[in-house]
Amino acid sequence: MKSFSKKILASSVGLLMMGGGCLQLAFAEESAQSLPTIVVKADSQETDVTGKLKRKVTLNILGEKDVMDTPFTIRSYSEQAIQDAHAQSIMDVLKIDPSIRTTTNSGHLNENFNIRGFNSTWEDNNINGLYGMAPTGRVSTDILSSVTVLKGPSALVVGVSPYGGGQGGVVIANTKRADRELTRVSANYDTDGFYKSGFDVARRFGTDQEYGARVSANYGQGEHVVDGMEDESVSAVIGLDWTTDKAKANLDAYVTRDKRDGGSPAMVSFASLGKVLDAPDGKNNYFPHLQGQQEAKYVAVSGEYKLLDNLKAIAGIGFSEQEYSGHIFGTRMIVTNDAGDANSQYYNVNMKQNNTAANLGLEGAFNTGFISHTVGLRADYLKNQIDAQAGQGTKPVTFPTNLYNPSSGGAMPVGTPEVLPTADNEYVSYTLTDQMSMLDDKLQLILGLRYQDMNVDSTSHSRNYTTDVITSTNTKYSEDKVSPSVGIVVKPFGDNLSLYSNYAEGLVAGSTVSNTADANYGKTFAPLQTKQYEIGAKYLTGSWLHTLAAYQIEKPSTLTTSYATPVNGYTQITTDGGETKSKGVEYGFSGNIIDDLIVWGNLAYIDVEYTKATNTATVGKTVEGQPEFTAGLGVEYHLPFVEGLSVNARGTYVDSQYLNNTNTLELPDYTLLDVGAKFSTNIGGVATTFRANVDNVTDEKYWAGVFQSGFTTVGGARTYKLGVTFDF
Fold first, then answer.
1. I want to staple 316 with a disulfide (CB 3.0 to 4.6 A). Which of 49, 286, 292, 302 is the partner?
2. Pick from 65, 143, 116, 111: which is nearest to 435 by CA?
3. E strand or H helix that includes residue 607
4. CA gap 2, 421 in Å, rounded
5. What angle do CA 299, 143, 103 make, to 5 degrees?
């Protein structure tokens, strides 16, 4: 595999050098179009009136773009959005987005999402434009400067996720960098005694401020989320850069660690009972003897250099290590009667993962007549190595409990499960884009192709808990696909109105048929291509920003058909004829009603159906865990008689959603109300900001969402949050 990697990287360099030679000749002759000067990015980047949504985003090969100039639906949440929400993790940031569902509990060590009707796990998160670099389980906001969601399949921008998700959208998290001078100390406290404090220091040095350094660290400890559950969290991040008008070099690194003892949020099944009971108190602790830990480390270097005024080279490489052990997931309850009696179980797991990601590219600008071009050529590489437990680790611990009156049963499983080689995969891709602009930027066109080569060597291990026999199934193949994308932006009446449309594709690695009774036993399917068609509009008028998008996503999958009578001894056949289709409309707005009153809101209508499936009973059914309608409305009022004081409130409505794929069990709709206040002042020459929030003010008891098919998550209880920051 090492020699193969070297060959791939050598071919990437060769391809780019050949392309660079050709492009350099062209760009040297045609210098009317120049690339922007490389500058240090300031934190005062333009946002909407709330300060929560950034106007500019970085989209890998497409570079930094204003959202008004992108033919995609993009929401980029700023540091202010993170701070105002007291967001501990990405889940706390994204829960206000109506087209994103969280499929694991609030406070869970694993955070998984559903975007536009399709699942995205924590492994599908993208850090600084790279897959495989995200922290284990969940991404702490303490290491981040922003969180961007690019909706829809996005093979062009980020490539294929090695973990199979990201077909409805991708989360791109950006770590902190020295974008301004900063000396900050912070402290936060929430319900039941969880306390976190930290510092964040950033400096620019040099005659022209060409050197930058940012260091931030946080420590948290205490009880929260559910009664008796103790958490300890540690995070630190470093961002160093050297920036001139011709070159930029970055070094980014982080370490995160979570330790949990004495509890966990729960997932609940009503499959045996055949109906859904009322939701319990969100503070109930059903697993009082659990403990687990996870940690991640990351370091990366990246840079860009202007070879000519209109030709730039880029390169980067990153390394990450992730591991977890103990209790991380599998906290399941099976309700058996109307009184809420249930059988519970959980596992003891173990995983270690090492990833390497790299990229190399060229970006050039030139004109052909009245059309200006920005052309990108890039090679990306990812090596993904995983060792993990067989099945769910040690034999599950089972014990009786009750939905409304939890027992004190259960204990940690004995021993730590051994880890076995699970994945040794390599992904190589080459991307070519041409961003064209004409008629004074009134018409913009993006054309792109990504050639993706997947070399998969993965093994699944199942464990028979009665005999303790482990069975392993290996999938090994090399496949490739080309993913085209097209986007168009039209500004018919100036920069304030942007009409756009796109066709985008995503890729899912093919699976291997492992059932010996299947006519296609042993066959590995080629990567499956997800397709999106989208149209939209973005409108700026005064302080108001409106966004509207309508889309359709078609995601293929395998399906298995049973034979009426055996054929050559086979009883079924698996093909790639399955399909899930998502159609939806999204609308968002923000603006000032009066000078001191800001309002923002969003809504989403989503119809996600199984159009072709193995189980004919699911064909035409709504995908589980997907409400048809969600909406949010927020207000912030700056009190005119107290300088620096503002109060805010946010309401969220989530429509009913199905618990299973046959749509026979349904979770009721719910509405949540959050309130808060912020006071900015100066104490002894120190800029000080106090924040106070109450989430779920009415202590609504609700079923939040669905994990996989058949398990619903218990909604979070009322939570009080206090925070203060001192900027010296």
1. 302
2. 65
3. strand 597-612
4. 17
5. 105
Question: What CA dihedral angle connects 105, 111, 117 and 119, to 10 degrees?
Answer: -130
Least confident of 202-211, 413-422, 607-616, 691-700: 413-422
The angle subtended at Cα 420 by Cα 416 and Cα 425, nearest 5°, is: 135
Q: How far apart are CA 139 and CA 131, in angstroms?
A: 13
Helix, strand or coil, per DSSP, at residue 411:
coil
Instruction: Supply the pLDDT for residue 417.
Output: 87
d(CA 372, CA 378): 20
- What residues does 365 pair with on adjacent strands? 374
Classify 259 as helix, strand or coil: strand
Question: Among 121-125, 171-175, 691-695, which is the least confidently predicted range?
Answer: 121-125
Average pLDDT over residues 433-443: 96
Closest CA to 624 of 654, 578, 659: 659
Contacts of 393 (CB under 8 A, 6+ apart): 347, 348, 349, 350, 413, 417
In this prediction, residue 236 carries a pLDDT of 98
pTM: 0.91
CA 175/CA 216 separation, integer angstroms: 11
Nearest to 150 by CA among 77, 46, 218: 77
| Among 529, 436, 523, residue whose Cα is nearest residue 487 | 436
**3-state DSSP call for residue 291?**
strand
**In angstroms, rounded to a whole number, what is the distance separating the alpha carbons of residues 78 and 93?**
10
Dihedral of CA atoms 125, 131, 136, 142 in degrees, nearest 10, equals: -60
pLDDT band at 476 (very low <50, low <70, confident <90, very high): confident
Sequence-distant (6+) residues with CB within 8 A of 684 are none
Q: Which amino acid is at 553?
A: I
| Strand pairing report for 349-368 and 311-326 | antiparallel
User: Which three-class secondary structure state does DSSP give residue 125?
Assistant: coil
What's the count of helices (H) and strands (E) in the chain, helices before strands? 4, 39
Q: What is the mean pLDDT of the chain?
A: 91
Sign for the CA dihedral angle at 48, 549, 118, 98 comes to positive
pLDDT at residue 154 tops 60: yes
**Span 701-714, average pLDDT:** 91
DSSP readout, 294-328?
EEEEEEEEEEEEEEETTEEEEEEEEEEEEEEEESS
Give the whole-angstrom CA distance, residue 74 versus residue 51. Answer: 16
Q: How far, CA to CA in Å, does 476 sit from each of 86, 424, 521, 524? A: 44, 10, 14, 8
Lowest model confidence (mean pLDDT) among 166-170, 532-536, 552-556, 664-668: 166-170
Tokens at residue 121, please? 């796990």
In this model, does residue 26 exceed pLDDT 70? no
Residue 601 C-alpha from the chain's centroid: 21
- Within 8 A by CB and 6+ apart from 248, the residues are 38, 241, 242, 303, 304, 305
Reference 460, options 450, 470, 446; nearest CA is: 470
pLDDT, position 568: 92
Which residue in 338, 342, 224 sits closest to 282, CA to CA?
224
Spatial distance between the Cα atoms of 1 and 694, rounded to a whole number of angstroms = 53
Residue 47 has pLDDT above 70, yes or no: yes
E strand map for 111-178? 113-115, 118-120, 126-127, 144-151, 169-175
Give CA 260 to chain center in angstroms.
23
Reduced to 3 states (helix: H, G, I; strand: E, B; else coil), residue 20 is: helix
Whether the pLDDT of residue 8 is over 50: the answer is: no
Those residues whose C-beta lies under 8 Å from the C-beta of residue 613, and which sit 6 or more positions away, are 559, 578, 619, 661
Alpha-carbon dihedral angle through residues 24, 25, 26, 31, given to the nearest 10 degrees: 70
pLDDT at 17 over 60: no
CA–CA distance, 546 with 537 (Å, rounded to integer):
8
